[in-house]
Structures are given as C-alpha cells and as structure tokens.
C-alpha cells in the first residue's frame, strides 16, 4: 500500500526552530471554535443543549426549517484596554461559530423555546404533530 507523507522543507533546514510553533496554534484554534451540542429526544419534543461560552444572547441566531436546526453565534473581542497597559499574552479566542443538524421529525417552530444560562443554550423543540389522514368521499 502506498504511504502518503507531507513534505516540510523547513524540517531539514531548521528542524527544531519551527517544530511545535505553527501546528499547535492551528490545532488550538480549530478546537476552541467548536460548538458542542447534546440532543435528546422525548416522546413529544427534542431538547438541545449547546455550549456557547462567551457569547452574548443577542449574538446568538437560531433557525428552524422543517427538521433542520441551525445555531450560530459570534464571540466578539473585548477591545477595552487601559492607558499604558499592553497585552503580553492572550489565549482567548474570537470569531463565529455555527452548527447545523437534521432531526428525524419536523419541528413546530411556533412553539420552540430558547434559553441561555451560564454559557449553555437550551432549546426546547416540540415535534410537529402529523396531519391526520382523512377520507374523502366521492360524489
């Protein structure tokens, strides 16, 4: 079987200089800007818990289209700094996060509820009742 390897031209010239400097930054950013979601199904509704720390409730958008749910939010950078102070090191992140998923049943979006508490978004998404079949008589 053929092996695929990535060629790094700096590895030969500067083996220790760049090792561990660029890659962890990319890895840390991709991990920190993920929206983690738990979805539970009950007999009449779905309950969704999404971790959204640092996102103000006015910066959260939720869209329901049939059985598709989309959650997005924006983490804004705090630009307030005092005169004479400078940032020496910062590990806080900012940017947009989003997550979409499809549920087995359609959602009754008119009865859906959302609540944010302690950085966790809780969605109560009631299932849409199926239209009952009716017989039509032929005249």
Layout of helices and strands, plus pairs?
Layout: H1 9-13, H2 22-32, E1 37-41, E2 45-51, E3 60-65, E4 68-75, E5 95-102, E6 113-117, E7 120-126
Antiparallel strand pairs: 1-2, 2-7, 3-4, 4-5, 6-7
Your description of this structure?
This protein is mainly beta. The protein is built from 2 helices and 7 strands. The protein has helices at 9-13, 22-32; strands at 37-41, 45-51, 60-65, 68-75, 95-102, 113-117, 120-126. The model is unreliable at 23-31 (pLDDT under 50).
Question: Element order, helices and strands?
Answer: HHEEEEEEE
Q: Briefly, what CATH class of the domain at 35-78 and 93-126?
A: Mainly Beta
Please indicate the percent range of residues in DSSP E strands (runs of 2 or more): 25-35%
Q: Show unreliable segments.
A: 23-31
| Average pLDDT number | 78
Instruction: Trace the largest sheet across and list its strands.
Output: 1-2-7-6
Radius of gyration, in angstroms, nearest whole number: 24 Å
The biggest beta sheet, please?
4 strands, antiparallel
CATH topology group of the domain at 35-78 and 93-126: Immunoglobulin-like
Report the CATH architecture of the domain at 35-78 and 93-126.
Sandwich
Structural class: mainly beta
Total helices: the number is 2
| Shape by Cα distribution | elongated
- Give the end-to-end Cα distance, rounded to a whole number of Å: 71 Å
Fraction of residues in helix:
10-25%
How many E-type strands?
7
């Amino acid at each position: 079987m053929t092996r695929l390897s990535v060629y790094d031209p700096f590895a030969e010239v500067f083996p220790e200089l760049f090792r561990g400097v660029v890659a962890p930054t990319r890895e840390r950013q991709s991990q920190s800007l993920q929206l983690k979601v738990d979805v539970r199904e009950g007999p009449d509704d779905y309950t969704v818990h999404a971790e959204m720390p640092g996102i103000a409730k006015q910066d959260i958008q939720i869209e329901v289209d049939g059985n598709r749910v989309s959650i997005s939010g924006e983490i804004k950078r705090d630009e307030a700094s005092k005169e004479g102070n400078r940032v020496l090191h910062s590990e806080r992140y900012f940017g947009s996060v989003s997550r979409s998923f499809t549920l087995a049943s359609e959602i009754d979006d008119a009865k859906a509820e959302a609540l944010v508490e302690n950085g966790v978004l809780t969605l109560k998404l009631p299932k849409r009742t199926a239209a009952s079949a009716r017989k039509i008589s032929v005249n």
